[in-house]
């Protein structure tokens, strides 16, 4: 009886394994004369999401179907690119892969052992890394051969981009100022301000008669920068109190304001130098904008190129 039961169980296990293998090898897409299996799709899903397909589907079936569809599209595109690379004979040699790995090591100051250890930490074998690197280099060869060689960014495009995005290149206005802060002994708002305002007017009169603002600030100011002659440094106009800013806008470089009632203090401001809002000149940005436009155009042309290749290819999904 035990032998019979064991035989039945063993037969069922073999059947289950066969069904599993058959399901894993099921074709989920045809791409020209190539096929993509469910096993390959599930492996890629786990590689890109860090989760098994069953677990993803159990957590959110709707999201899983979307993720599965997107990843299948990635594999299909890879197969089409691989086919085109083969057609154009743009393969990357072992020596080219070795050279690029050496470049990566030098650029990141890594020894061979450190590179292998880092890859291991990220769950990638050196063999898998080399394989992925080879694919990336071949794709770069395809872009160079089919797209990049024909791409020119005109000066008019650079100028137009600069004008359209000029706000991004704004240099905020700033003011280098010094201040004398006259603060009442009592912290109650308004207490003693009238007396301090009179004191401020006396100080301004002394400055207008030739006494140095810096010396009076050291002697009378009760605020920041007093020991430095009231110097507050260069401040962005956007960071200056509106009431002070209104006064600064009426001054020329080197001029001193009348005493300003700030509600809890009296303040006298000296404008040392003001720089209005400006823009970084196009000449300094030309290379940066050229690279930006170049990358945008490469991305667009690559997508157009891939769309054209897909139209030329036989693609059939069976999900």
What does this structure look like?
- This protein is an alpha+beta fold and 319 residues long.
- The protein has a domain at 173-276: Chitinase A, domain 3.
- Helices cover 59% and strands 13% of the residues.
- It is built from 12 helices and 9 strands.
- A 4-stranded antiparallel sheet has the order 5-4-7-6. A 3-stranded antiparallel sheet has the order 2-1-9.
- Helix 2 (38-49) packs across helix 4, helix 3 runs antiparallel to helix 4 (61-88) and helix 5 (94-107) crosses helix 7 (126-146).
- The longest helix is centred in the C-terminal third of the chain and has 31 residues, at 282-312.
- The chain starts with a helix and ends with a strand.
**Secondary-structure element order, N to C:** HEEHHHHHHHEEHHEHEEEHE
The chain-level mean pLDDT equals 89
CATH architecture level-2 label of the domain at 173-276: Roll
Q: Radius of gyration in whole Å, from Cα?
A: 36 Å
- Report the principal-axis shape: elongated
CATH topology of the domain at 173-276: Chitinase A, domain 3
Properties at a glance:
319 residues; Chitinase A, domain 3; alpha+beta; four-stranded antiparallel beta sheet; three-stranded antiparallel beta sheet
Walk me through the topology.
Layout: H1 2-24, E1 27-31, E2 34-37, H2 38-49, H3 53-59, H4 61-88, H5 94-107, H6 112-121, H7 126-146, H8 155-164, E3 170-171, E4 174-182, H9 193-208, H10 213-220, E5 231-236, H11 242-248, E6 260-261, E7 266-275, E8 278-279, H12 282-312, E9 315-317
Antiparallel strand pairs: 1-2, 1-9, 3-8, 4-5, 4-7, 6-7
